[in-house]
Batch of 4 targets.
Target 1
Amino acid sequence: MTVNSMNCVCNVQLDTQLWSNTMMKAALLILTVSISTGVIANSEFTQLDTNNDGAISLSESKANPSVMAQFKDLDTDNNGRLSKSEYSHFVKK
């Protein structure tokens, strides 16, 4: 193997390692943001669910005008209450 060939192999290996490290950092950042968003969403849900029944009623949603304005669209099962799952769709918007 010539010196130029060895340099080329080393550069490819370094590029691969750099790319791998960059992808790992990106994956960790995405995971961190996802967890943070979930924690924030849960905290906001808990604040709106003032009677602690595990759902947000239309009356409780009045504390957040944006949630109230979208309540009917978010209440996908039309039971007049937003579950954590239904509320999570609001948070993602």
Target 2
Amino acid sequence: MFSPPNSIEHKLDSPQMPCADYTFHFASWKRCNDPDTYAVLNWFIMAGLHHFYLGKTQRGVINLCVMLVGLVFLPFLPIVGVIILVGIVIVELPQLFKSQQIVHAYNNNVMRELIHKVKSDNA
């Protein structure tokens, strides 16, 4: 019975691992992201959830904190709160329209890293 490897570092000479191509395709299938999921998360523009999806945790946390600051200001200083929230939308809106390109570039980088990893493991 053939079973998939647990990691890229799985030995190529193992009976479970037929070839380096399988290692690459299995790993890329697990690590590549779906552009549609990114676009759906991007609809929550101010929360920055799409940044977490691509592993940009720091940017996601910053986006989330700025949004919370804007929401806190809304009841007390509405103009400041609205300016902060509109600023987030202005910065993040282009990413909504470029979601396919952003995820495509991310997936290309992931695959490029995996190719180098598989080649170095195979050498």
Target 3
Amino acid sequence: MSDIGQPEQPERSAFEVRNRRLDRRRERIREQLRRDRAGDHKVPTWALALLLLLFIGGWAWLVFSA
């Protein structure tokens, strides 16, 4: 539905919708890569890896000691 005097927007095909969705996804990925390469990390990678290792080790200890 359009206002009086305003032309109706043509309906988009499934191909156009899918293509636009892929373009937006690619742009989000590019933006994420740009931020990652800038190095604006709040927590160093080694600290996250250590935290994960401690978590898995603690979980394994609970499972095997029970």
Target 4
Amino acid sequence: MNASCYTLSIFRPRQGKEEEALATWKKLIEYFHTLPHPPSGRGVVMRSFDTEGKYASFCPWSAREHVELVRADSGARAIIEVLLELTEADAGPYEVVNLVG
């Protein structure tokens, strides 16, 4: 994986919307992979061991510019808007500042 940045989200599906939120997240990542500058690896969703209903997701990108392009893409925006209706989320892009191992 050649990633210089990641999109990262901490989210909680709204009550009764967990399955729909996870399916929509998968749809978003699949859509990302149809774009001219797709993610540089697989998207990942993780569920908290400690906090019921809390999830984290991330997706690697080879360049910040690719993240900016996808965030401006109307198809991606439409799916993201659905996710925002289904979840309470804190999301955004992050750059890699250190790698270990």
